[in-house]
Amino acid sequence: MKKTGSYLGQNFITNPKLVRKIIELSKITVDDIVYEVGSGRGSLTHELCKVSKSVHSFELDSLLYAYCKENLHFKNLDMVNGDGLNEKLGISFDIFVSNLPYYESRRAISWLCQKNFKKGIIMLQREFVNKLLSKPGDKNYRAISVICQNRFSTRILMDIPRTSFNPIPKVDSQLIELCPKTLSLSKNTIDNIQFLFSFRKKTVSFVINYLNKNYESNIDPNKYSDVKSSKIANLPPYNILNLTMELKANVRETVTIH
């Protein structure tokens, strides 16, 4: 096959044992609708079709899409040449599976937070997984940590050797499982969490005063008296989500917060 996809940052799974292990850990049933982002050369897509009710598989690279269309012949497969993380797509699914380029990781997590589904199985860079699981006060604790932990229970399923991919990446990878534990988060909520983390080194008291002054909000600082001296970066995810809800309720609709 002609070399493709390098400009999209893709690393293709070349280890058949890894593909089988991913399928085993995914625990997909014949009743499940699978949503795959990043078909690649179709090695995982092929096995997903065997164990599921149907597969919607998205590939942005036109040459890879054509390769999969030519070589994957399953009646339960819907191959799409496009961006599977397009917010306008309204496809319902049970299981999300992805080996997408790592630069799309943050976007993928934010997109999934807005969806209702049973489970996500994703290959990610180990460093990014550390961010997802980081605790308040950790150096890697970021907005994406709060977003993910409010929405999902996250579990590391396995470490993935670099040699399982072609080309061999310069970073270590992990397979994780995301299980929704709350209602989906809106894009506005996600944007507001990211906004709050632009003040990650500031105290809650400072942020509330700033918002009340500059955004004409009416947040009662007494509601946060127990954490007013805490920095945003030291707040647990649920505290940050509560403050985000205050933004939504008290900031004028004409003000856009990013």
Itemize the secondary structure elements and their pairings.
Blueprint: E1 12-13, H1 16-26, E2 33-37, H2 43-51, E3 54-59, H3 62-71, E4 77-81, E5 95-98, H4 105-113, E6 119-125, H5 126-133, H6 143-151, E7 152-160, E8 165-166, E9 173-180, H7 187-196, H8 204-214, H9 237-250
Parallel strand pairs: 2-3, 2-5, 3-4, 5-6
Antiparallel strand pairs: 1-8, 6-9, 7-9
Quick summary:
With 258 residues, the chain is α/β, with parallel strands linked by helices. It has helices at residues 16-26, 43-51, 62-71, 105-113, 126-133, 143-151, 187-196, 204-214, 237-250, and strands at residues 12-13, 33-37, 54-59, 77-81, 95-98, 119-125, 152-160, 165-166, 173-180. 35% of the residues lie in helices and 19% in strands.
CATH superfamily of the largest domain: Vaccinia Virus protein VP39
Distance between the termini: 43 Å
Please tell me the overall pLDDT: 91
Q: Which oligomerization state do the chains in this entry correspond to?
A: single chain
Amount of beta strand: 15-25%
Order of helices and strands: EHEHEHEEHEHHEEEHHH
Q: What's the CATH topology label of the largest domain?
A: Rossmann fold
Which word captures the global form? Answer: elongated
Indicate the radius of gyration in whole angstroms: 20 Å
Molecular structure report:
Strand 2, helix 2 (43-51) and strand 3 form a beta-alpha-beta unit. With 258 residues, the chain is α/β, with parallel strands linked by helices. The termini are far apart. Helix content is 35%, strand content 19%. The strands form two sheets. The protein has a seven-stranded mixed beta sheet, sandwiched between helices. It has a two-stranded antiparallel ribbon with strand order 1-8. It has helices at 16-26, 43-51, 62-71, 105-113, 126-133, 143-151, 187-196, 204-214, 237-250, and strands at residues 12-13, 33-37, 54-59, 77-81, 95-98, 119-125, 152-160, 165-166, 173-180. The protein is elongated. Helix 7 crosses helix 9. The longest helix has 14 residues, at 237-250. It folds into two domains: 6-180, Vaccinia Virus protein VP39 (Rossmann fold); 187-250.
